[in-house]
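Teaching assistant here, posting this on the class forum so everyone can see the example we discussed in section. The complex has two components, and the goal was to see what a joint structure prediction looks like when all of them are supplied at once.
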Amino acid sequence: MSGGRDRGPDRGRRRGHSLHAFRAILAKDLRVELRTLQSVPAMALFGVTTFVLFRYGLDRTKLSGGLAAGVLLATVLFAAILAINRLFVAERDEGGFDAIRLAPVDGTALGGAKAAALIVYLVVLEAITLPVFALFFLDSWAGLAPVAGVLALADVGLAATGVLVSAIAANSRARDLLVPLVLLPLLIPVMIAAANAAEPLLAAQGPAYGGIGKWVGVLALYDMTFIAVGFAVYDFLLED
Amino acid sequence: MKVPSLRALSIATILCLGAGFTLVFFYAPLDADQGFVQKIFYLHVPLAICSLAGFMIAGVHAIRHLRSGDPVHDARSYVSIHLSVIFGVGVLLTGSIWAHASWGRWWVWDEPTLVSFLIVFLLYATYYPLRYAIEDRDRQARYASVFAITAGAFVPLNFLAVRMAQSLVHPRVFATTSGGLPGSMLFTFLVCLAGMALLWTCLVCFELAAKSASAKLSRLRRALEGETYAAPNRSRIAPSVPSRAASPLT
């Protein structure tokens, strides 16, 4: 990039490049996932197996309220960690980090694309596991649609923090260890807010909507905070 | 120049903490409800406030490190988190003792402040494995700063979420506008808080001074003995500190 004289148009061009790069990386990631199927099927399988584990661990065949919300949320969070572990493996092994450093685009484009890919994975995971969960444990399916909305908000927060932690861990020696270690405490507020929002929706006597507004608010605040933090710091994870 | 300032800081810390604890035992009235055990409040709460403020200060140093690339700020961020984690152990221990004395149990889950503090503590405890897992020193410093900023943003969010989730058992001594705390107790508390803040600052300055002195010693030895000098085994995660770092934290 040349001197300060043409900084204005230059920045505009850079942003255009970044948007283009964002789309290209996201499309690449989704295409790779479609061809290799290395993350989503494993996550879904993990989710279903975890439900079976909970069925025997809790010795319950029907769940409702707080217990149902906890089982669902814990399963989704742990399944997400499988994908977050793998998010940057290809970039590191195949030189994607170097390529993005050489290209005239913001590193944020890479982070944003990875976060978007992670959200897509999580939505597919929930599209599979939520009906299975309802089939296994719920009497009524009425609360599922609003629960899916709560999960979507949780997914955004998961993706925002997950990408940061995954990018840090990808360049470390103890990748598989570091992701759950650092990510789980960071996700506790997501767990608190999403579980509390989902609890009345999964109540035994049918979904109730009272009091979930403030929890949705907390989730939205969490999402926005970590999206902002991600934008501010992501570039520094790519410098070398 | 540095030694007298450290000495002055140490003396101020000792005086202030000494005065604070004298006030605690001889001036502040006994709590009508909890009796003598309430005195731990003057230790527990200042520790918690200093620890959390230390995490925030570490975040600010981390921002300055990323903006300037100056390793001094990374060292300050590291030392701030280091001491705040140590203070955090004190918070959890004293909080647990207080919970046992006033509610009869060592750990109370309905108690939002203690629980959120535990979560924050667990998060910051992963700072060490994180640094340890990254070999390259530059990258280690940068990633640690990213972590410190992310975790700094996490602290208030976490307190909000945990507080909303639980019933309010924990005493909210400053919450009431009419002043939940009598003047004499508040004065004692403020002296203790100032003493604890001085202690934190003092320890941070000492650790930075020690690190920069050992770095300087290493450099001098290397200059004296040339290539044959083998550096002693140094920590792989503590940042190497340039000598400027020992100046007071700003």
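For the discussion questions: Chain B touches chain A through 29 residues (CB under 8 Å). Chain B is about 70% helix and 0% strand. Think about how each of these relates to the inputs above.
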